[in-house]
Design a protein that fits this description.
47 residues; mainly alpha; 1 helix; 23% helix
Length: 47
């Protein structure tokens, strides 16, 4: 558990042959899809 006011840093990393290409990421994809999760991470962490 984080202390009150604590910070949590997440560095998502995906490797392997099943990684969607950058053009397949979409915030309009199914909410339970890898494409949607990766689009959210790209949107929140553009760098």
């Amino acid at each position: 558990m984080l202390p009150s006011g604590g910070r949590f840093f997440l560095q998502p990393m995906v490797f392997g042959p099943n990684v969607p290409s950058g053009t397949e990421f979409s915030l309009r994809a199914d909410l339970d899809s890898d494409e949607y999760a990766l689009a959210l991470m790209s949107w929140g962490n553009p760098g």
